[in-house]
């Protein structure tokens, strides 16, 4: 009798957590991803601001799963799902059949109906995004050095970050530290410390999902770093010349988008009910309605917390959902009782602003400053795949902290000359 076939689409935190937990199960597991590596997205901003190199926050999927002999990895881009035939369609490959399907395909940028802004204001979801933004930031300083006029120099030294969520806050703080600290002795004609970093948030406060006291602490920390924080001011246009904030035109050579996300195309593949940002509406056990063999997890799934609000797109959420689906599938494979409906156990949320500056909402206690920053570092290093990555990142952070130097200030890729 053939063993059950479990297909997992996506090797992010959710998909990889499910694959790990299904290692050694009495089933043939196939992991499909368009890239051959697992990416630690929470540290992408450090690659974008030249704090870490790409290899320090990514690891090959095959190497991570090498000990799970029942798990195979397929490199390919999924283009659809046939629920009736139980087939996953992979571009340039034959169809992949399944008995159970786990979709963990993540999220992408949302420009709120203005997709034409993407060319001028890239978001931060992939390694290519991070190295592209790094190229833009470092090239801006290089172009400012020989600029022929004060106006041109001012434009090159102006950086606009759109969105006051964790991505925007972390990016703005990291760019400020790069300009004011790491690059301060590297140029002759310009003072990188004169760089202007503008963080724009349409809402009334930063980090809207955090308690107001931590939002204010984050704002104060950014202001101390020299960031110009604009609250309650929506961006109405983005172009290669800069941004329009309300009625004000801000000339900026570099724009970073961190204002919104949209779920992957999974809802379209499944012709399933979805929420306003494209997340699939799932049952309490994370399965698709009327299709108990299909599960949707992570940023792709609309799952309600105990508060009645959708769970946030965080790594711990995806990891717990991946582990839960694996437990449920193991129970089915062995004819045992399935676990209770999924329930997310939160340990809190955190965001970093800069050196010795972060905020942490642990529920029972709210922290900001150095203690929150140390806790943030410990938690993020512990999530990295592989001991070598943890050790290298920790040593790099210690080196940067002591020397005020950033170790990955390389301009590479298209247009890097």
Task: Describe the structure in your own words.
The protein is elongated. The protein has a 6-stranded mixed sheet, with helices on one face. It has a 4-stranded parallel sheet with strand order 13-12-11-17. A 3-stranded antiparallel sheet has the order 6-7-8. The model has no long low-confidence stretch (mean pLDDT 92). It has helices at residues 13-21, 44-48, 61-64, 127-144, 150-156, 166-182, 212-224, 266-270, 315-333, 370-383, 387-403; strands at residues 5-9, 28-33, 37-39, 58-60, 71-75, 78-82, 87-90, 96-97, 100-103, 107-109, 158-162, 196-201, 227-231, 235-239, 242-245, 248-251, 254-257, 261-263, 280-281, 287-288, 291-296, 301-302, 349-354, 357-361, 366-368. The protein contains 11 helices and 25 strands. It is α/β, with parallel strands linked by helices and 417 residues long. Strand 23 (349-354) and strand 24 (357-361) form a beta hairpin. 45% of the residues are buried. Among the domains are: 5-34 and 76-109 and 261-333, FAD/NAD(P)-binding domain, CATH 3.50.50; 115-259, 3-Layer(bba) Sandwich (FAD/NAD(P)-binding domain).
């Amino acid at each position: 009798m053939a063993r059950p076939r479990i297909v997992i689409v996506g090797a992010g935190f959710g998909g990889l957590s499910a694959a790990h937990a299904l290692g050694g199960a009495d089933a043939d597991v196939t992991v499909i991803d368009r890239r051959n590596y697992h990416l630690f997205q929470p540290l992408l901003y450090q690659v974008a601001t030249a704090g870490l190199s790409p290899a320090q926050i990514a690891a090959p999927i095959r190497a991570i799963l090498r000990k799970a002999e029942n798990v195979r990895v397929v490199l390919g881009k999924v283009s659809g799902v046939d629920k009736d035939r139980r087939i996953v369609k992979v571009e340039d490959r034959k169809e992949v059949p399944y008995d159970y399907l786990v979709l963990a395909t993540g999220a992408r940028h949302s420009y709120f109906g203005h997709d034409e802004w993407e060319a001028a204001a890239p978001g931060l979801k992939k390694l290519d995004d991070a190295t592209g933004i790094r190229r833009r930031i470092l090239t801006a300083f290089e172009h400012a050095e020989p600029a022929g006029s004060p106006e041109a120099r001012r434009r090159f030294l102006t950086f606009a970050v759109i969105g006051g969520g964790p991505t925007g806050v972390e990016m703005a703080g990291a760019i400020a530290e790069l300009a004011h600290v790491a690059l301060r002795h590297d140029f002759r004609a310009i003072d990188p410390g004169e760089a202007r970093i503008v963080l724009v948030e349409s809402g009334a406060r930063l980090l809207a999902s955090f308690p107001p006291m931590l939002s204010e602490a984050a704002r104060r920390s950014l202001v101390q770093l020299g960031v110009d924080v604009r609250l309650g001011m929506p961006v109405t246009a983005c172009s290669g010349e800069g941004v329009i904030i309300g009625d004000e035109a801000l000339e900026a050579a570099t724009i970073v988008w961190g204002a919104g996300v949209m779920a992957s195309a999974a809802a379209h593949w499944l012709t399933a009910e979805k929420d306003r940002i494209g997340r699939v509406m799932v049952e309490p056990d994370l399965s698709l309605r009327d299709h108990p063999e299909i599960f949707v997890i992570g940023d792709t799934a609309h799952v309600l917390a105990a508060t009645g609000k959708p769970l946030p797109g965080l790594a711990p959420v995806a990891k717990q959902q991946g582990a839960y689906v694996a437990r449920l599938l193991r129970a089915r494979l062995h004819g045992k009782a399935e676990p209770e409906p999924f329930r997310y156990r939160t340990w809190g949320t955190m965001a970093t602003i800069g050196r010795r500056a972060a905020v942490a909402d642990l529920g029972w206690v709210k922290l900001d400053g150095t203690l929150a920053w140390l806790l943030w570092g410990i938690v993020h290093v512990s999530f990295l795949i592989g001991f070598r990555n943890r050790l290298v990142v920790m040593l790099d952070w210690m080196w940067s902290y002591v020397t005020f130097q950033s170790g990955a200030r390389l301009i590479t890729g298209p247009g890097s000359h």
